[in-house]
Amino acid sequence: MEPIHGVRPRRGRPRDPEAEPRIRRYAVQLLLERGFEGMTVDDVAEAAGVGKATIYRRWASKELLANDAMADLFDIAIPDADTGSIAGDLRQVYRYALEFVNTERGLAVIRLAVSEANRDERTAAIYRDVLERRIVLTKAALDRARTRGEPIKSTADPVLMVEWMAGVFVIRALTGQPMPSPEDADRLVDVTLQAVMDRSTQDSATQDRATQDSSTAQARPESQLANGEFGNAPHIA
Q1: Cα separation of 88 and 18, whole Å?
Q2: Residue 6 and residue 185: Cα distance in Å, rounded?
Q3: Which residue ranges does the record assign to the HTH tetR-type domain (predicted)?
Q4: pTM of the predicted model as reported, rounded to 2 decimal places
Q5: In the prediction, which pLDDT does 117 show?
Q6: Contact at 8 Å (CB) between 212 and 206?
Q7: Distances from the Cα of 191 to the Cαs of 87, 210, 223, in angstroms?
Q8: Integer Rg of the chain from CA
Q9: What percent of the chain has pLDDT over 70?
Q10: How many whole angstroms separate alpha carbon 135 and alpha carbon 157?
Q11: Is 94 within the bounds of a domain?
């Protein structure tokens, strides 16, 4: 049979569009169950129902697969927020984070960090990468707030903003204390805002408005007060 010009014969099975998310999902599962050392590409391939070649076509090493899978988990569980204010952004991200760490999988992620990061440099690298991604997003949120004119301190540090919350989770995991609940998001946001917002600018603006309002009230004609335009004046006999 003569080949049809311009049409290439199909070779192999069609690409599975669900393969990558499925591989990531099982990579995280095995990572949490066994740690980095115990997770193998063979086991991930078997669990995901793909060949090793399918994994290595997408990720050149187990380290890259583990990093990508964990980053994907955090991106889905704790997505970025752009609500129009720094307080709104923090509140939404904190609520997502608190919901996540109060799940079985979220707590397992924190426990893996506590138990493995100091022992295994490759595990530590995974968590550094996750934190670095969140730091980049936090810096972008601060930059957006400054552009909007919000009084963000020049000393506001996105690294510390991320690390202090991560530290709360690690300490709770180490001591066996329950994680803060999603209902604690507002309280934790207030703590962060105390560190990043220039309250003196806000207080000065509030004082200026109060002074202006007081001056306006003093300048009101007595006839307006007598006529009740600004409320009922007491009757003086």
Answers
A1: 34
A2: 60
A3: 17-77
A4: 0.75
A5: 84
A6: no
A7: 11, 27, 49
A8: 28
A9: 77
A10: 9
A11: yes
Asked whether residue 58 falls in the same domain as residue 148, the answer is no
Domain co-membership, 38 together with 126: no
| CB-based contacts of 204, cutoff 8 Å, min separation 6 | none
Examine the domain organization and report whether 56 and 144 are in the same domain: no
Contact at 8 Å (CB) between 90 and 98?
Answer: no
Lowest-pLDDT choice from 6-15, 129-138, 187-196: 6-15
Which 8-state DSSP code applies to residue 197? B
Mean pLDDT value of segment 54-72:
93
65: domain range? 18-77
Q: Where are the alpha helices (DSSP H) in the chain?
A: 19-38, 41-48, 52-58, 62-77, 86-101, 104-116, 121-148, 158-175, 185-196, 199-218, 222-226
In a domain, 128, yes or no: yes
Q: Are residues 112 and 148 in the same domain?
A: yes
- CA triple 72-24-168, angle to 5 deg: 45
Are 110 and 176 found together in one domain?
yes
Pairwise CA distance, residues 150 & 83, whole Å: 13
How many separate domains does the chain show?
2
Claim to verify: residue 35 and residue 94 sit in the same structural domain: no
Given this model, what pLDDT does residue 230 score?
39
Model confidence over 149-171: pLDDT tens digits? 999 999 999 999 999 999 999 99
Q: Is residue 235 part of a domain?
A: no
